[in-house]
Design goal:
Four copies of one chain form a homotetramer. Chain A contains ten helices and 14 strands. With about 350 residues, the first copy, chain A, is α/β, with parallel strands linked by helices. Chains in contact: A-B, A-C, A-D, B-C, B-D, C-D.
Chain lengths: ~350, ~350, ~350, ~350
């Protein structure tokens, strides 16, 4: 941490800052420039990030030269982490992975049909919600354990893995019994107790970016999980809240290279929530492949008009299969050009 | 709900929409204009809000004419709800209430000193966090139950009520034992399980607006609480996330008249988090009084430079007392001009 | 336009709305549902968009069923418009076009070198600013006409077209003398006088999305140009302002399919401004190709460290050439999968 | 400017940065800490703000310790600037000033009636647009010079000053002939040519904050005006664009204390555009008074339902007069509490 003080800072003011650093137990250097006095604090200054040095007299700038996350960082681990989902590998140079399924699990038949379609398109993971976070208390909240039973059965039938959301600590043991990947929803990105709890399970966790989450907060949210010893994290970009209303969210694809630069964990994209309109999903799925993402999660439904939730953004069978054919071609092409990219 | 179809909609397309409405069990009218065909659905259409009518062929617009919240709405209850905190009344024409205290409870001495200052300035409620939601897992997370014991003791000593945050369902019984008001933090505005749990306690709940929460989502979050039978809700405007970095958040004071128009529950303001810089807190506190808010919650610290968290936005004793003297004068003035305002 | 009135609206209130519609010279229908009274106004209601019907007593909703833009809309022209830049075609099924060059024209040598690099990578258009909109009045404002002379010479030498920004009406004749495409910068998206002026030239116009412009405003800005008879418009997505600071802007690639759905004019992308960091430019350029954009505009510099502006986001020769090799491969692939996409 | 390099920076990398600083003609110091190497550049580093030092190898942080604006800053002039509008003083300890009038000048009768109402409520300045920036080219664009003649006549009749918007350089001489204050609209906050042109007139300029303008950009926009020698600037906070749709904009009242801290120029507020709904205007006007603003600008109309533009946010006579009675009481109170505030 670097503290920049104004040139005209008085000795007593400089001493006040020094005393505070000392009382926190940190060594430091004071450097006098022509226009500023600079105090450089040495060591793991994450621990004194909250000290309000800005509040001391004549302090003009405080520069945090260290990230507040550690184990999540590329600095901690330079090579890509591969998340292993019961044998299915995600990240690094592994093939592009698709997770597909309905927003909500509605019945055994519906999820079985979704699994069939998902499989046919080449998806490796079946998605579907049994516990749904809904803006209104009067909206459908999910089938609960019944839904979990249905999705597990459907996935097993078609040889798929399962991803489903866990909304609270109380239901975690139940959800963990049925799923391969625990999904943390956007509204829970900073539900720190829940992050710690899924961290303790050691299971693969798909961590969605918060509705208006910064990338820095997102990396710190991952740190809550990894700090519990769980290195099986998959970031999921799902769009952020902006002023634009032409799409449900603003799909921030630049998060892909940013996360890949700052962290060793894989990132996948969710074009369905990213745009919220079925006819924009395919182009954004392709853009996701080209951005270098490790995979995607996408909403499908045998009859989107009859979906109990997210019908507007769900793809029907034909559209999903067409998109997947395109995705296959594109991800093959991406493999051939990746080496060039790495060379840059 | 009103569904507007394009003029050239075919009979089969109109029938598809009608069939869907019927299958949902709702009566409707079809009205043919010169340029549109309009289908008006009758009844409590909150229950079919998720049906993706936009997805049916030739549907051009779907208009939701009902809010998704009900008991929270002014339509449900026209007169102001007064929240009773063990005898202290908040809302309606009750006096402007101040809640003051530190961000974190740090020690018995610190919270006792904060209580003394809070009381001297005229605050009626003591704030202070024992469980702190922190972006980084390495930041101070609060003293836990120890902190709760300290704040209760300090509040009782000075005849104040207590407000403190509850972060998860597991800790709710513990927190409820010590506090008068349960605070739901910004990151938990859509932690629906927690909202239901505090709803069940029947205790006063201070519901902070989410970090990027819309007013509509906020009203729906309240609905989760009130749907459990708990009508003791206080909205807390604490600033929203925008692109502007000159302040920690953008303090949206217009939420005060908006909430007062749409809901019967009181709203108070949090200028400390609203701006995040101590020297902007007093002007925004005064603006909050003038906006017609029912009260405010503000961060103070005997020595803000030594605060374990939020030191940058905490007021010291002198500044807090000066501000409170101004707030008193202004809220007296507001009482004299309120009748004119109601006449508008 | 549809006006929805509350069920309990009184005759006099309904009459007030009707009288207003009549006085504006529009025919209408009144339709009585069980819960609402609906007034459907017939004709080109763009002309009465500003009438504050919401303000009339018992009006609950006003639905604008027509866009405020007309000639820009797909409804007006179903097939893709191809913009012809002195023989170079942009849009529709034409090949993906790259425009490359420095942020600022700095000297004859610099722009000549940029042109060489641009050409080698396969770009067809040379970019470079002679008049620069700068946040601070003390920043470099561009070489003016001198710069225009330099860029024209460099482009002609390498057989490239020129795109450069015009900042004000006064300089338009000068800029038009040297350039093939007039660029309207993000800060000028709603400089309506300038839009009308470039509209009158009939020249190709690259219309950047405003710094926080909505897609609807952008389409209306295009309408200012096309209303003057100029159908040579290219939309340029360059990122929007959000709360996220990890990138300079938030690159909204979903604008590509949205604009393609709503308008017949081509859209290209600007990954350089979209992300603002050179190492994120290539992945976003590829994502742009995959999103279906008709081209891109990208910043390059022989020595980015020495660039007078935007050095942080400019690509050097090697990185640009690598990226272009990837772009070529990807755009070839996209051609093979496009038919499938159209089938959806 | 402070450049922080990584500890492991090689000599050649440090030298590259030093060479660049030298070539720009600036002296500097190199300081070696234990974990960083710090280079402190001396002098007016505004001039090298664009040098992409971040791009040099092993540079970890670049800290700009100087603002890019100068004459606008409190550092340049510590005491409040008072803007003199033909004898009417705005800013500092001068009385709170109200500017009132319609969005658009519609006729001589309409603006005369507005002037009568404005005057009766105690406004000192008459507002009204003759040239209107409109999202759609088909919307009413203003009466032009005819409108200017009307507003001047109405203002003179009631002894009011005039404020009206100038949209482009070409019309500036015309507008300047009729108005006392030149208004720069939100869409033109970064129309730098126009800023320079109004700067050259020496006339009072009301500079609206951009639709999504940062406070830093706003201060720099003012710098364009003051750099031309014009120190008669009034900042106008009018709300910023956010994701919230309950109000037309998000009214950022914290801009008042922020601007007052950073600049010596006065700031007034525009609650009409800030919220966009007539029934929220009065509470936000009062909040504006309490925030310490030097005045406000507000939209009124004899018959808001018949307004040609902004009818939704315009106050009718009764509501305006009621609000002004409240504003008077509150601004009187503010005078009595201001000394306390200054003491803080």
């Amino acid at each position: 941490m670097i503290i920049i003080m104004e040139e005209q800072a008085e000795s007593s003011e400089i001493k006040a800052v020094q005393d505070r650093i000392k009382s926190e137990g940190f060594p430091y250097h004071v450097i006098r420039g022509d226009e500023q006095i600079i105090i450089s604090i040495i060591g793991d200054t994450r621990l004194i990030k909250d000290v309000p040095f800005e509040r001391y007299e004549s302090v003009s700038h405080v520069v945090h030269t260290q990230n507040s996350y550690k184990l999540t960082s590329r600095d901690f681990k330079a090579d890509d982490s591969i998340v292993n989902v019961s044998g299915l590998k995600i990240g690094g140079n592994e093939p592009f992975i698709t997770m597909a399924g309905p927003c909500s699990i509605e019945s055994q038949e519906q999820i079985m049909e979704c699994a069939r379609i998902a499989k046919e398109g080449g998806a490796k993971v079946l998605r579907g919600g049994a516990f749904k976070p809904r803006t209104s208390p009067y909206a459908f909240q999910g089938l609960g354990e019944e839904g979990l039973i249905y999705i597990r059965k459907a996935a097993d039938h078609y040889g798929l893995k399962v991803i489903t959301e866990v909304m609270d600590e109380a239901n975690l043991p139940l959800v963990a019994r049925y799923t391969d990947i625990l999904q943390i929803g956007a509204r829970n990105m900073q539900n720190f107790k829940l992050l710690q709890a899924v961290g303790k399970t050691g299971m693969p966790v798909a961590l969605k970016r918060g509705i208006a989450g910064t990338i820095d907060e997102w990396l710190n949210a991952a740190e809550y999980i990894v700090a519990e010893g769980n290195f099986n994290i998959i970031f999921v970009e799902r769009g952020i809240r902006t002023y634009e209303t032409a799409t449900r969210n603003t799909f921030d694809l630049s998060a892909v290279p940013v996360i890949q630069k700052l962290s060793h964990f894989p990132i996948i994209v969710d074009p369905s929530h990213g745009v919220g309109e079925w006819d924009y999903v395919a182009p954004m799925a392709l853009a996701g492949v080209a951005s270098g993402a490790s995979g995607m999660i996408v909403e499908i439904h045998p009859e989107p008009q009859k979906a109990w939730s997210d019908g507007q953004q769900s793809l029907n069978e034909k559209r999903y299969l067409n998109m997947m054919a395109q995705v296959d071609v594109l991800s093959d092409t991406m493999k051939t050009i990746k080496p060039i990219q790495n060379d840059i």
